[in-house]
Each structure stands twice: as C-alpha cells, then as structure tokens.
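Morning F.,

Quick status update on the modeling queue. The single chain you submitted on Monday has been processed. Sequence for confirmation:
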Amino acid sequence: MGHVVQHAVRGRRRGAAARCERQRDRVGGRAVDRAREGPLERSRQRSPGSLSGRRRMAPGAGAEMKTLQHSTLRVKELEARIEGMHTSLICAFNQLLDLKDLNTGFHSTRLAEWGVRVARDLGVGRECLRDVEMAALLHDIGKMGIPDSVLKSPARLTDEQWALMKKHPEYGWAIVRLFPEFERASLFVLHHHEHIDGAGYPAGLAGTEIPIGARIVAVIDAFDAMTSNRPYRQGLPFEEAIRRLVLARGTQFDPSVVDCFIRIASEEQAGVFAATGTGVAVAV
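Structure tokens below.
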C-alpha cells in the first residue's frame, strides 16, 4: 500500500464556385424585392408584435420549454436522490464501524461536529467544510480492515500489532475515495496521523504539506481519544488533555488549530459541543 500512498501524495492530476454564384443570385433577388417594398410593409414584417412575427419566432417553443423545465426538475430530483443515498451509505459505514469497535462510531460523529466548528472559525472555505465533516466522520473507517485481535486488544500493542494499526488511514483513504465528490476528504482521512514536524504516518508529511482538513482532524481526534475510555486505560480529565495538546503544539499539531480548538473547548467545557455540521453528522 506504501507505493499507493506516495502516488496519492505526489501524484497529480489530460462545386464551390457554383454554390457561391447561386447564393449571390438569391441574395441579389431578395435585395430587389425589398427595394420594391414600401417602408410601412417592411416595418410590419419586422415588428415582433405582429401575428406572423410571433409565428415565425418560435413554432413549438412552448412545448420545448415545458420539456426543458421537466428535464431540469428531473435532474434535480435525481441529484437529491443520489445525495440521499450517499448520506445513507456514509451513515451505514459509521454504524458498521461502531459495531466493529464499540463507541468508535460515536467518536466519529463528535469529530464531524467539532471539525466543522473549528474549520469555520479558522476561515476554511465553504466548499471545504463538507470535506472536513466527511473526513472527521469517516477518518477511522479503515479500522474495518484491522483484525479484532489488534483493534480490541486490552493491552498495549506490540510493534507488529502497531504496524498493522498504522495501516488504517490507507484503508480509509481507499474507501472514501470511491466517492468521486469526496476525493479531497479522502486525502484528509489518509493524512490525519501526520505530524506537523514530519514524524507522523503514513507519508511523513510536514507543515503545510499536510492538508488543512487533516490537521484539524488530527487535533480533535487526539483530544477525543485522550478523554475517552479505552480497554487498557481510563480517559484523561479535560484539563490534562488540554495540557497535552499544548505540549504537542508545533511538533505533532498545527499551532493555529490547537489554539482554535482550545478556545472552543474551553468555552463549552461544561456542556456538549453544538452540532453545527452540514447535516450528515446529525443524522447518524
């Protein structure tokens, strides 16, 4: 899969004279005829309000317009249906992941809500918000390909098990990229374990080489993972998780994303993050 990742990272988007004579004769004949007409007659022929003018303008135009309107409406209905099918499929993926790894689905739903909130506060373009939400929602979908003996291990992972676990971003990328409209989101999924200093995986990207959506998911994923219970440990208190984010600021995480998230988290520490996504996360 390593060469596939490199390809995904670096790779980019790969008889004429007789006819002229006859035409000239026709034009000349029309010119003579027009010269014989009076100005009033010519005016009547040009008038768009005349009955004959209306008939000449668009015979059958009404039927064609209705057909066009019907076709446009049909296309919109099909687009809405496809959108609904995609949403249902994405939600199904999330539910399957929750069955595979208990609470992972809910973890992904929280991240989808938080990711949109952070992205908006950072000024991420509107066209990218849905990609951030999709990446946050499906960032762990690749864990479907990780053996249960690794995924549900009650002990800390061995080096061999950890090597398997580190494959899940690549598996997730391979799934999400099957949706053509989520190609960018698939890259966010692929790189959400990269570190700002280049020490992450799977491609060892650094700084702004890491897509902004992946940098956002990295921070909120780490925070939620630290504060959630695991088979081998209890979740950390809010304050300790924030302290660890600050310690990793500039090495593991993008400082601007950390600062933005801490501000949001601190404001809403006593409550639950508002569901501010574009609709998919709320539906899960």
